[in-house]
Amino acid sequence: MKDKSRKNKILLVGYRATGKSTLAAELAKRWGLEWVDSDDVVEKVDGRSIAKIFKESGEPYFRDLEAKVIADLLDSDGPLVIATGGGAPMRPETRRAMKERGVVVWLTASPEEIAKRMSGDATTGARRPSLTGASPIDEIVDVLTKREPLYRDAASFIVETDGKTIDELVEIVADQAPEFFF
Ligand code: S3P
């Protein structure tokens, strides 16, 4: 019988371009675990890029699919590191399931740093359609302000990423993540 009571997932949440996928891959390597990016799964399941899904089917369709993908990942048996899309914690049921099934790490960065990382990331065009129609920096400040209480609600702990190397971030998370997995 499946033991659904164990908290055996580690989830990385936070705004776009805060380093969730990069850190998920490094943490998984350190712990010898599998890792997955929920945006990758959404695109694979749907067969379209996120930008195309937003354009052709709208954001609510994307949010439903994202919630289903994350629920299924959380429902899987083994330990898993999950990098979530930046808007994943918007749904109360997703936040609840994340907290029930795992350790939730909230990665933060300043709006200026996020804007810089987003514009320098080759995946932004296909993965990060506009959420509000505002300019990049205005959108980041606006959406981040609205989402902060939701990230806070989901988070087991918070990690500030500005000015830190990936190795430093791995150490910080590895130090703080309770030993649920071993
Ligand atoms: C989104 C973040 C993106 C992707 C989609 C929506 C958001 O993921 O899921 O563009 O609403 O913040 P990343 O956080 O990996 O960029």
Largest sheet: 5 strands, parallel
Q: What's the number of extended β-strand segments? A: 5
Spatial extent as radius of gyration: 16 Å
C-alpha end-to-end distance: 20 Å
Approximate strand percentage: 5-15%
Structural class: alpha/beta
Oligomeric status of the shown chains? single chain
Give, in spatial order, the strands making up the sheet with the most strands.
Answer: 2-3-1-4-5
| Helix percentage | 40-55%
Task: Indicate the low-confidence ranges by residue numbers.
Answer: none
Q: Tell me, what's the shape?
A: globular
Query: How many helices does DSSP assign?
Result: 9
Ligand inventory: shikimate-3-phosphate
User: Element order, helices and strands?
Assistant: EHEHHHEHEHHHEH
Mean pLDDT: 94
In summary, what is this structure?
The model has no long low-confidence stretch (mean pLDDT 94). 54% of the residues lie in helices and 13% in strands.
